[in-house]
Amino acid sequence: MNRIEQLWKLFIATFSVSATTSGGHAITAVLKSLFVEKYKWLEEDEFMNLISIGQATPGSIAINVSVILGYRVAGLPGAIVTMIGTTIPPFAFMLLVTIFYEKIVGNQTVTYFMSGMQASVTALLLFVTLESFRMNKKDCKTEGYVLMAVAFIYAMFTDFSLLFLFVFAMIVTYIRTVYLTRFFR
């Protein structure tokens, strides 16, 4: 496959995923099926490491992850192509919503559609969480599983800011690291 074909496949992959998912964490499950299983651009462990980096960086998770994966597969042109492919669908959607807001705000069909999307996003987030459990079981200790479960429950069932979850995870990780460092010296 030549360079142009690879960049085109990267664009189509990220464009289609961005157009058919809600973005955020849900995008990672679909990108995995393309980057690891279908095109075999990355190994599963490498993919998960890159996903972790993309989720830890500030900004939109979907764009961060896509750019990092695109860069890993095809360098700077790959990062640019995946950024454009991931950005166009939500931008177009928001543009349409802005234009037609007054007409759709009270539409019952739109309300049902959005409720259905919420259910599918919940299912995708659950899938991503379970997939993370499965992939990290060889490296993850009990504390990691507990922290992942707490984070999932917090994110799905509370309305508090995720900043509190982030700070909590940092504190727990710091305490665990200090404890292990002192214990194993």
List keywords for this structure.
single chain, 185 residues, mainly alpha, 7 helices
Task: Provide structural commentary.
The protein has 185 residues and is mainly alpha-helical. Helix content is 84%, strand content 0%. The protein contains seven helices and no strands. It has helices at 3-20, 26-38, 44-56, 61-104, 108-136, 142-157, 162-183. The longest helix is centred in the middle third of the chain and has 44 residues, at 61-104. It is globular and about 60 Å long. The termini are far apart. The relative contact order is 0.09.
User: What is the CA–CA distance across the termini?
Assistant: 51 Å
Could you tell me the radius of gyration in angstroms?
19 Å
Mean pLDDT: 83
Element pattern in H and E: HHHHHHH
Please provide a brief summary of the model:
The protein has seven helices and no strands. With 185 residues, the chain is mainly alpha-helical.
SSE blueprint and pairings:
Layout: H1 3-20, H2 26-38, H3 44-56, H4 61-104, H5 108-136, H6 142-157, H7 162-183
Helix pairs in contact: 1-2, 1-4, 2-4, 2-5, 3-4, 5-6
